[in-house]
Known about the structure:
In chain A, about 30% of the residues lie in helices and about 20% in strands.
Amino acid sequence: xxxxxxxxxxxxxxxxxxxxxxxxxxxSALLAGQSGVRTLTEDWIDTVPVTFAxxxxxxxxxxxxxxESRRLDxxxxxxxxxxxxxxxxxxxxxVAPERLGVVVSSGIGGINTTLSAYDTYKERGWNRLSPFTVxxxxxxxxxxxxxxxxxxxxxxxxxxxxxxSGAEAIGYAMDMIRSGRADVVIAGGTEAAxxxxxxxxxxxxxxxxxxxxxxxxxxxxxxRDRDGFVLGEGAGILVxxxxxxxxxxxxxxxxxxxxVGYSADSHHITQPEPEGRGIIMAMTQALTDAGLTGxxxxxxxxxxxxxxxxxxxxxxxxxxxIGNHPLVTSTKSMTGHLLGGAGGIESVFTVKALQERVVPAxxxxxxxxxxxxxxxVHGANRAxxxxxxxxxxxxxGFGGHNVTVVFKGA
Amino acid sequence: xxxxxxxxLEGLGKIINEITGIPAAEVTPEKSFVDDLDIDSLSMVExxxxxxxxxxxxxxxxQLKNLKTVKDVLTFIQN
Lengths: 410, 79
């Protein structure tokens, strides 16, 4: 890392998740070990093998004005709610429009709109479609609406890499600031994919938990009896800023966004590569990018989705790239897996852990699986040490995408 | 039974409120959609789609662009 490189700081956080409608309520729910997973009552529920999901704790249509929410896909509604919270949390920074950017992603895009609009088109004809159908279903829609809301002109982007999308967005935003394209970037991920087709399709990939008699016990990363991931929905957004810009306006600085690493497995379209080579590469590059060593990292918010294949590979790779010492948790045990939203909310949680020096325990981890040597936080929350510490958020996606983001305490 | 002008005005006020957030009471016959209510062309399409469902009257695109005021819509639906 060059000594005079632009440093990026986190000055605002926003989230709407299955465990809370904002950052404060979501974070306190995680510290209390509360699950946001619920049994579904949708009319399609009898047609799929999974009958539960992590639905949003607060419906975004209760928060947004009605004329606005009817023009937004649910994924855009979540993004808008979280982005406004993050912006206010950052103190509504004054920034020239041409120095403000947005990078907000989703893994799937406006899938609810795509499917309901198809029904409208088939049953009632093209002229009954909302003129906003296209901006509701396009995957860059959440970023575009946030950009419009804030008047961002430095560039509005949506990186797409399945369940790594949110983390990749944060990495791209860091690169925008470091390269001098922007002073402030609103970045994160969103997803609203709880629909019969998505549940059916993930179930067809044999990726989902079918623990229908115990929904809140279904997301159990690293537990011997885990049987797949639990779908969640919501959004997590960060306001990233050059340190110079943040200091000049005397902003509160949560943490440094100090490094990002990317890699691709090039192994299988959905299965993780068994040796974790790609994951090791992403973590190693992120540390190099941050100018840190594994010893500096005291906490990892893991990707760990509760699938039989992925969870153990990740922590074995982590042991090689970082070491066995960090306190590792999977907040997905409580939120479920938000797909493209995961990197957003989990980066928010990683920053909160650094700020409050506490790691929320993974729930449902009753019997740690074989082959795990890292320090998994379960049973009770654990404190992080004082002093200069760093924390890592991992996100991996179908397609073999691996993204690691490193944050350093302020 | 044909809807009265008052019924249609109330229905239209409700639709416009739902789509734009403008209070229904402000939707009065003499108002211009563009100049008084600040409603853009895509919102007009949304209003036309909703009005078709509510009143069972098709409003073709070439007619829609001639409907400048609330009164124009009331007259079109009544005829």
